[in-house]
Amino acid sequence: MGISISNWSNVEFVPKKYIFPPERRPGKIEFPVCNDIPLINLANNHPTDTIQKVITACQEFGIFQVINHGISENLMDDTMNMYKEFFKLPGEYKAKFYSNDINKSCRLCSSTLAYDTEEFHYWRDNFTHHCHPLEEYIMTWPDKPTKYREVVSEYSIETRKLVYKILDMVCKGLGLEKGYFEGDVSKTNVISVNHHIPCPNPSLTLGMPVHSDPNLITLLHQCDVPGLQILKDGQWIGVHPIPHAIVVIPGLQLKVISNDKFITPVHRVVTHAKEARTTIGVFLGPSSEYLIKPATALVRTEPVFRAFTYPEFLEAFTAGAKCDAQFALNHFRNKT
């Protein structure tokens, strides 16, 4: 199993196992920043206008940022500081969370869950745990830093409210029945935190794989160090961090439910030469029993995708050599 890179100190060169082949390296360090990514004010007094902005962003960009979203700046800062402190804790303490078992509800891994078999390692540590229902999972969370459970449980509750607020807007904007996204379609709720230490040569390695989010919807709380990039019109462009804004990414299951109206962006993370980067992701996904399919109200003739369960999707995702979620989704397209 991988050794947490957050325990490394004075790294002067990129270890061989982290150097990607030339065609997969980011190469140049400076990338254009996309200034067109929609920034949506959720405190807008015109709810119909806001809903339309959300729908348009899902259709044209597959990513947007929200401000005045209801999560206090203090709570966002406190939570970010909790994770920065967590990754600074002694390796002996963090070791109790090390696991490459996807079924473990609270786990820390380095690079990816496939660390032991992957050809190249990604420059990151990842800490993931389930957070709903709270009472079911909170005792598996770290008890250090001291206020971890107190702060992160409040953050879990507030981000959950926000993600349902956004899903409710999607529901209204698509004309689906009220409460469509409640229940089994969004049963799984996890927090997944990525931590990248400064990298001596960011042109050689990646902080995260090139991927699309396979779940229903993602909220991303960036720190002030850039690194997130989306692939738009064949070019990698940066998603610049806006203080206390939250990035929203519709996942592939939402693309299916929208009957292919929504975009799920291909994205990746590059490293930074001088500063550590920590980001907090909140992921909502379907239960293993839920049958994912285009919403009936959005199908005019034949649905774009056939029905499937999340485990079936993940099986198609891991079966291919590419481990490409967009590629896996094509497996469920109706061939017309």
Could you please describe the fold and organization of this structure?
The protein has 336 residues and is an alpha+beta fold. It is built from eight helices and 14 strands. The strands form three sheets. Strands 1-2-10-7-12-5-4-3 form an eight-stranded mixed sheet. The protein has a four-stranded antiparallel sheet with strand order 6-11-8-9, with no helix packed on it. Helix 1 crosses helix 5 and helix 2 crosses helix 5. The radius of gyration is 19 Å and the shape is globular. The termini are far apart. The mean pLDDT is 93.
N-to-C order of helices and strands: EHEHHEEHHEEEEEEHEEEEHH
> How much is the average pLDDT?
93
The helix count comes to: 8
- Rg, alpha carbons: 19 Å
Q: List the strand order in the largest sheet.
A: 1-2-10-7-12-5-4-3
Largest sheet: 8 strands, mixed
Helix fraction, binned, reads 25-40%
Q: How many β-strand runs?
A: 14
Q: CA-to-CA gap between the ends?
A: 45 Å
Structural class of the helices, strands and pairings? alpha+beta
Shape: globular
Q: Strand share of the residues?
A: 15-25%
What are the low-pLDDT stretches, counting only 5+ consecutive residues below 50? none
